[in-house]
Amino acid sequence: MAVERLFKDEATEEKGERARMASFVGAMAIADLVKTTLGPKGMDKILQSTGRGHSVTVTNDGATILKSLHIDNPAAKVLIDISKVQDDEVGDGTTSVVVLAGELLREAEKLVGSKIHPMTVISGYRMAAECARSALLDRVMDNKDDADKFRLDLMRIAMTTLSSKILSQDKEHFAKLAVDAVMRLKGSTNLESIQIIKKAGGSLKDSFLDEGFILDKKIGLGQPKRIENANILVANTAMDTDKVKIYGARVRVDSMSKVAQIEGAEKEKMREKVQKIIGHGINCFVNRQLIYNFPEELFADAGILAIEHADFDGIERLALVTGGEIASTFDNPESVKLGHCKLIEEIMIGEDRLIHFSGVEMGQACTIVLRGASFHVLDEAERSLHDALCVLSQTVNDSRVLLGGGWPEMVMAKAVDELARKTPGKKSHAIEAFSRALLAIPTTIADNAGLDSAELIAQLRAEHHKEESNAGIDVITGSVGDMAELGISEAFKVKQAVLLSATEAAEMILRVDEIITCAPRRREDRM
Amino acid sequence: MAAMAAPAPRSSKTESYMDNKRKDDIRMANIKSARSVADAVRTSLGPKGMDKMISTASGEVIITNDGATILNKMEVLQPAAKMLVELSKSQDVVAGDGTTTVVVIAGALLKQCQTLLHAGIHPTVVSDSLHKASVKAIDILTAMAVPVELSDRESLVKSASTSLNSKVVSQYSTLLAPLAVDSVLSVVDPAKPDLVDLRDVKIVKKLGGTVDDTELVKGLVFDKKVSHAAGGPTRIENAKIAVIQFQISPPKTDIEQSIVVSDYTQMDRILKEERTYILGMIKKIKATGCNVLLIQKSILRDAVTDLSLHYLAKAKILVIKDVERDDIEFITKTLNCLPIANIEHFRAEKLGYADMVEEVSLGDGKIVRITGIKDMGRTTTVLVRGSNMLVLDEAERSLHDALCVVRCLVNKKFLIAGGGAPEIELSRQLGAWSKVLQGMESYCVRSFAEALEVIPYTLAENAGLNPIAIVTELRNRHAQGEINAGINVRKGQITNILEENVVQPLLVSTSAITLATECVRMILKIDDIVTVR
Q: What is the pLDDT of chain B when averaged over all its residues?
């Protein structure tokens, strides 16, 4: 061969059929891994970290599982990426998207095996996806104008999302929490103002929504524990001493009394700083950095509530919800925007004391306090609740709603099947394959619930042959049920994102005909 | 561990078969390892339970009967086993007692689940039924409970002594139980009668003496010596106490500084200046009438120097140094005073008052005791004594459990019988309930009911009784309507346990059942272990 060594040592190249096989296998393996977590009776996974402490996470959230995997297969990485994007965009359906993409590839593998060109498959998939989307659009419900019905929709969506998670037993309670929290946002998708605090102890049912803001910090010694009509200054400033920040700066003196004077001067500077802060007309001071004993006492003397060492997240949120700005200089009191709230008090949750700000300026803000038996439960509960909140906030903006329980997939499959019959040429095989892949989602839900999936899917298909059917899988009784009656709903936006990104990912992987693994960079190469 | 192997890509043809096999294996492996954890602590259950000796990696030896402590020190690696350890910790947080019980129940439930899974019941069905059964169990327990008033000191003492009876220090339960009750009751804030912050009860351990010498101190105790340099006072009546957060030592600036000395006369002057500087501070302190000084530990510079100690001793001020910053809040709360961070702020109104501050010799060391505090805050100090470190630590843990029991009663004012009575009653009622249910659920609830019998069974077994004879008799008595019949371990027979004063807070039993169920359900739902970064 003329070009014997195109690549560096250790770089590998896989071509044509082999490359495609490698990506198919990798993607399918990933899909199979998360497949069992799908649906209300999906199972959980233990994630065991190989790092220090061998910490253990128990989760049902597809995105979390995939995010933490060790993956070497490039195609598998693509799937992980779409799951991440799904998580960022809509928050839920992270497992569905991977499962669907996996199934699309599985079908594509068969088609390619029977000598259909990948490009034909791709164009078939594209047509099918477009058709499936319009089929969904035809059947969406929109209750935006009817506030009560819309709320009911939100509740149903939240419950459907939560039913596959650890919170399923108390899903009504949590659905209510999530809906209340999202309704407070009044259409903004900024979940920042919903704060989730986790406190071990108690049971999940003891979790509650609190209007206002809770800071997991302590009030300084000897300071008031309760303040009404608080003016809050949120700051990020050093409260030990303002040091001369030039390297090597030092003071040279020739007697002890001068050292004492300098120390006194430092103290005096601090006192001035505190006076300036007090001069803002505040009665609550929150600092990101430590407040040392001396200024703490000064604040206590002035009857000001000072909170030290509020972490970065904490002060940014506090500044946001109280409508203040984070200040770091205090020379111009008029230019600093203070935060306000009606009441600051110390409350006890479980065994811990927390500071509660109620009646804050930004009405949207609220805090959800999660209680649970152990940290595993709490972490998983937070992830689940986060999913629900994301979906809900998206739904508030795009209020189109679908039924759940495999219903959308059946509707899409039916439409795609019809398209396949109308389409001449090899493409129709690909379109048919697409519909089979769609059916994989209800199949997996049924399988995970330990039901006879083949029987159920056949029944469902028969039901859906009738016009305007609402049939879906009722996992609880293990039969075909009316989804509208059971109150199982999903957000249109989630389904659409699942459909489109799964198709895109499958398309991308199908196009691959060569994998080049670059040689790992060596340290010596830098020389 | 086979379970830890990374998930290899599987071929698509045989996938469904292989998958299920693997999942079953993982579930069984999880159940098995979790059960072995439960078996490890099983023998320490009950008043005649045995203790475990744990020698840690650092060579330290711990002897304990406390489930949470044993599990905590075991350093298990298997993830499912770890969950059981977490479970015991959660029970410790929620109720403080019953940390062994909760693990034993979880182990028994897992054993039953194994049978159910073998029978081909889907794990989620088992899990849902367990949840239903546990909700029902809580209802039954609540119905059995007897309300208790906080003024009813005797009942509180009874439940505290039930908790203490299973510990090494059981022979001292007559002393420790009332002590625990008194200390908790004295920190209850009348404004918030349902909340107790156990951080308001400070436990000070001091080696020497026996557990008998343990006492409740109305005031403060420091496990520290009064600083003795230059013969300062060790006993002061009518003390005026200041808690200071500044240092009585030569000045130090935050900016790096150096004093340049060019000749020896200057040196003399500097030494003299240092003296006058410190003397000035001490004079200011003395001027307020302060005669006891608690000095916070400082990491930046010496809190006190020999020189300042000397002057303080001259001024007849008793000094306790190296007080931790974390303790300052407790101290100021107790003494009803304010910490002072600068000499300029040293004013009389920031001082605390006490009738007596004195140094007492105890065993091989000395402690400082502050008593007769004026306007004392709602705190208490318990001074625990013991003949060796192991006993001392175990006494502290037992006392903590007892305090938690009393706290539970303050939170939820209900008592329930001990000695296996509630468990056997639950088992009976749930068994009856399962007969009304239909399908798989009925089967699972029955298993739940059977699993609960493990508690009386283990109690009897640990006490050296014939467990089968005892449990069957217990069942019999309960069937005849004696819902409070339980195992009297001391007499080795079945009696009305409520009359024997063996009682425990309702919260301990209910949280043990809910937490154990929650944990088991979590283990059941896991079908894969994935190793991650």
A: 81
| Structure confidence by residue, pLDDT tens digits, A311-351 | 777 777 777 777 777 777 777 767 777 777 888 887 777 66
A residues 240-279 lying closer than 8 A (beta carbon) to B: 240-241, 243-244, 249-257, 259-260, 262-263, 266-267
Q: Give percent above pLDDT 70 in chain B.
A: 91
Opening angle at CA A483, ends A160 and A438, nearest 5: 80
**Residue B266 with chain A: CB contacts under 8 Å:** 254-255
How confident is the model over A102-153, as pLDDT tens digits?
999 999 989 988 888 889 999 999 999 999 999 888 888 887 777 788 888 8
Which residues in chain A come in under a pLDDT of 50? 1, 525-527
Burial of B14 (0-12, 13-18, 19+ CB in 10 A): exposed
* Cβ neighbours of B110 (radius 10 Å): 25
E-strand ranges in B445-525 read: 485-488, 493-496, 503-505
Q: Tell me which of B92, B380, B401, B514 is the catalytic residue.
A: B401
Ramachandran angles phi, psi of A47, nearest 5°: -105, 115
Contacts 24+ apart (CB under 8 A), A420-423: A420/A128, A423/A124, A423/A127
C-alpha pair distances (Å), B264 with each of A77, B260, B270, B271, B275: 75, 11, 10, 11, 17
Q: What does residue B454 show for φ and ψ, rounded to 5 degrees?
A: -60, -30
Residue B346 phi/psi, 5° resolution?
Answer: -70, 95
Half-sphere exposure of B521 (CA within 13 A, CB side): 29
Whether the CA torsion B402, B404, B405, B410 is positive or negative: it is positive
CA–CA min distance B231, chain A (Å): 28
Compute the Cα dihedral for A313, A316, A321, A327 and give only its sign. positive
Q: Would you call B100 a catalytic residue per the annotation?
A: yes
Using CB atoms, which residue from B90, B246, B254 is nearest to A243? B254
At residue B465 the predicted structure's pLDDT band, cuts being 50, 70 and 90, is: confident
Closest alpha carbon to A369 in A174, A156, A190, A107: A174
**Short-list B494, B460, B454, CA closest to B477:** B494
Q: Which of B253, B295, B410 to mutate to test the interface with A (most CBs of A within 10 A)?
A: B253
Q: Check residue B218 and give its pLDDT.
A: 80
Residue B165: the pLDDT is: 79
CB B138 within 8 A of CB B416: no
**What's the confidence (pLDDT) of residue A524?**
58
The shortest CB-CB distance from B260 to any of A252, A260, A293 is to: A252
Which region, left, alpha or beta, applies to residue A371 given φ > 0 means left and ψ of -120 to 50 means alpha? beta
Question: Is A447 tagged catalytic?
Answer: no
Chain A / chain B CB contacts < 8 angstroms: 212
Mutation test of the interface with chain A: which of B530, B531, B533, choosing the one with the most A Cβ atoms within 10 A? B530
Angle at A61 between CA A60 and CA A64, to 5 degrees: 120
- What mean pLDDT value characterizes chain A? 81
In this prediction, residue B300 has a pLDDT band, given cuts at 50, 70 and 90, of low
What is the bridge-based pairing of β-strands B339-340 and B235-244?
parallel
CA distance readout (Å), A470 to A49, A409, A481:
43, 12, 8
Verify whether the Cβ–Cβ distance A58 to B250 is below 8 Å. no
CA distance A225 to A220: 9
Lowest mean pLDDT among A288-302, A418-432, B10-24, B248-262: B10-24
Examine the residue annotation and report whether A95 is marked as an active-site residue of this protein.
yes
Among the partner-chain residues A47, A251, A260, the one whose CB lies closest to the CB of B255 is A251
Q: What is the pLDDT of residue B1?
A: 37
Residue B203: pLDDT band (50, 70, 90) is confident
Cβ separation A297–B345 shorter than 8 A: yes
